[in-house]
Amino acid sequence: MRLRVALVGILLALAGPAAADKVKTNQDAKLYSRAGEQGQVIMKVKEGQSMTILSTDGRWLKVRVSGRTGFIPRSKVNLPEGEDDLVRNTRRRPFVDGRGTKRGFGGGAPDDRVGADAVGNGSGGRDSDSDSDTDTDDPDDKPVRKKPPKETPKDRDRDKDDDEDIVIKDDERPTVKVLVKTSVYSEADDESDEQFSAAKGELLFPTGKKKGKFVEVENDEGDIGFVLGSKLSMTESSGGGGGKGGRTMDARARLGFNYLQQGVRSAGGTGANDNYNLGTAAVAVSLGGTVLYPYKPRYKLGADVGYDFAKAVPGIQVMGGTTGITLHNFAMRAVGAYDLQKSNGMMLLGRLGIAYQSFQVSDVENLAKNTARLPSENITSPTLGVGVVIPRLKPKIGARLTLDTQIGASVTQTKNLEDGVNPGAKRVSLNAGITYKWKPDMDIVAAYDLNYTTLSFGEPVMNSQRAHTGTAVNRTDLFNALTIGIGKVF
Fold first, then answer.
1. What pTM value is reported for the model?
2. What is the C-alpha separation between 293 and 249, in angstroms, rounded?
3. How many CA atoms lie within 13 A of 272 on its CB side?
4. Which of 7, 194, 225, 241 could form a disulfide bond with 206, CB atoms 3.0-4.6 angstroms apart?
């Protein structure tokens, strides 16, 4: 008898759905964290969405879809022809040795065996010992196939009525995009079987598992396999699974204009260079790049470099002459990023580095051409900053905001054109940017940069041709830049 029971169980297990079995939803549906409508809704799927069956549990299917694993009612999917009653791998055994089919002293069936929300007693997976859709009421212990309870119109309406009360989990899986059409293999070996093919620009879901140069990924239908990391690029929401070795790297180039303003105040001074304001428009070019490597599941470390160039057009016009000005700004920073694992890919940034600004005056020592008597100037300082990146503010729109401060700067000016004997500077730099996803690996980037600098020079230099007459000299610089260009992800 026991041998026959064991053989029946094995046959039923073999009859279960294969790991690669697919079904499509026949209506909009919800994916639950466990079998039963009392489980938490972890995502919604549209009608016609294909998904991979992992196991069955009563009237529920355990599926994998869009990087998530959960449970969906059978009534919400179109089952293959002749598969309306998918079989689970285990059989329901009596609850006591007397072959009873009821549990409890009161003789009533347990709650998880009643109504449209009936579920199995376990995970329902292929390897589990949970209950199945068979029973053993006959003396010979032969399994009797039972169909799951049919969903009533009331049950179907319940999903629609509860939409406003749903709280979707916000721990969306990170994604990577495919750089070129490639095969996804069953093993971390390009000689193994191909699981599926991924098209250029397709989004995949990294599982976090890596083997050598291969990354395990999953597609929107729940197929899973290994792909070379060099074939992938991190997307905005990626938690570090893209690019070579999981790194992300981007470069950016923008063109626009910068308006340069400068104001000098000398306490008690009455000379021409003691109190004045000047301003000029300038052509601006901005170049930069960032590289980040995953450090821990939610942390990344890397570096950022940026160079901004501005050329005054035509320059500062004073006393019938034009003084040409060129501005160079260079910054190099170490970057730490914390992934908030929001569905919009939001990350917090911390930045520490060094900044260098060079304010160059054409023919600076020729006062016949440098009629404004402006000194060339270099400012070097450490920089400390924070930022936030929201790659998917909207489906194709992203945003970025950074704020950096510079304190304890070193200031040097052209000899004999110094403003004071003890120069020092403080600066605040703000960058606000918007990105538009133009191509899978290319963005259109628009940015506004504000640099606000205050300089204190102390007492005037006696022999300086700046000829300050006051007791203390101070200056304020305000640079406003608007630029637009492209960003490339590698």
1. 0.56
2. 9
3. 8
4. 241
8 A C-beta contact, residue 52 and residue 222 = yes
Write the DSSP symbol of residue 174: P
pLDDT digits (tens, 9 = 90+) for 14-64: 444 444 588 999 999 999 988 888 888 988 899 999 999 888 888 899 998
Per the CB < 8 A criterion, the answer to whether 478 and 270 are in contact is no
Separation CA 77–CA 52 (nearest Å): 11
Q: Indicate the residue type of 424.
A: G
Residues 140 and 112: their CA atoms lie apart, in Å, by 26
Please tell me the distance from the alpha carbon of residue 174 to that of residue 389, in angstroms, as a whole number.
15
- 391 cis-preceded (ω within 30 degrees of 0): no
Q: What are phi and psi of 417, to 5 degrees?
A: -125, 25
Domains along the chain with CATH numbers: 2-165 (2.30.30.40), 176-244 (2.30.30.40), 247-489 (2.40.128.100)
Phi then psi dihedrals of residue 12, to 5 deg: -65, -35
Q: Distance between CA 356 and CA 329 in Å, rounded?
A: 6
